[in-house]
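hi support,

uploading two proteins for the ticket. first:
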Amino acid sequence: MRVRPVVMSDVAREAGVSQQTVSRVLHDHPSVRPETRARVNAAIERLGYRPNLAARSLAAGRSRTVGVLLTSQLSHGTAAIFAAIADSARQEGYQLVVVSARDDSSVSVAMALDELAGYRVEVSIILARRIAALDELGTKPASRPRILVAGQGGIDGVTTVAIDQTSGAVAATEHLLRTGRRRLVHVAGDLSNVDAVARRDAFVRTCDDAGVEAVVIDSGAWSAEAGARAGAVALGASPDGVFAANDDLALGVMRALHDAGYRVPDHVGLIGFDDVPSSRMLVPSLTTVVQDFRALGRAVMAQVVAVADGEEPEDVLLPARLVIRESTRPAT
């Protein structure tokens, strides 16, 4: 026997109120008294009622659907950001439509943007970090608001919500300097990525300000294997401090130092970026820069809601935070 789904009239009957009152509670209308709101919410919980978001959105003339564009460069950070956005979207009552670009080229991103425009989305969220993809955003007009989760802003017609890569890289470099290191090397990530460029540039500026030579090694990637290769090259500069552009690169650098007979942190201080779960389990544990991806997801959805409600969007730049662990302990 097929069980009939719970509808709004069932909730109204259970709570002893009208359907209009139930609707006001679902829309968080301020006219509902607290005791009535509590009674309706209790009835919703008991009956297991799930509002029909699509029907409610159509009645309001809104889709309550958000588009998300992903590129093929799905790193730890991008995956964590997407999960946070999806979680926040559910809490706000939005559905996601996800479109993937075939690769990170401007042509593929343009095609993905065209595909996304075909859906009835209120706002498009762009999870792209390659410079070519960001350049495409600046040249392609949009009929719907766009939110870019990367960079430092400055793209016409695009709202930027991101974590401040520059301040994180400055904090990492300054920490190495404070611990007495002066022969510093930066192992850069994939420099077609806007975050990698921001971290490298911040390292170079901070070294210049301190009167210290800035040595940069382009690893061309984000992997531990690339870090190990770059770490072997870095040994030629006789570093006493290395700032790797992410934790995976730092892991590879740590291996290269170990294989060459160098001890971290006694001979070389080492810092990563991202605070992946394994970073605190390494021996020595890795000093790194934390990016609060959950806070970023909430900030993105806050802008989505603001735009959908007719408010003017604004760029948001969240702080990064240095976490000091064993790998940068001052040399004894």
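and the second one:
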Amino acid sequence: MSTGVIALLVAVVGVAGTLLAPITTAWVSSRSRRQEFELQQDSDRAKRHIDDAQANLERRRDAYVALNSGARRYRFLMMEDLYAVRRGAGPDPATELARVEFQDTYAQAQMLVPDDVLRPCQTVRVALAEAKKLMDPLAEDATHDQQKWQEAHTFLIDMWEPIGVMQLAMRQDLGISAPPRP
């Protein structure tokens, strides 16, 4: 090749490089911005996922506190009513309010808590309903049968077992160590 052709090729490559440099720079810059945008989206998505998981944990914890305290309160008030019946007094209206509150809390929990926690909660709910079935005839009949009173008393005392199982399931779901068993 002659020097004239080489000079012409060098000039063409130089002009093409000069003309293509801004296009190449814009393309590289656009690609870099797109990668930064995708990284920011991934970071935002991960943060939203963490925030959602934290909010879900807090909602479950609130539901567990309400279920646990509601079940314990309802059971306690039924025990108080049982002793009131023994003394000849009637049941406290607060017991019915506690029952309704517990049922409402349980209904909300059905839409929120996982099945492995809901099963022990269901057991407690059924046990509380059974205790109410034992209590109602005693409250209606002033000449209560001592054997039926004792049966209701034993049933209410034994309710600590399903309540403890429910508490354990809740604590395990929240990642808390199991409470010591007395």
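thanks. also noticed: The chain has five helices and no strands.
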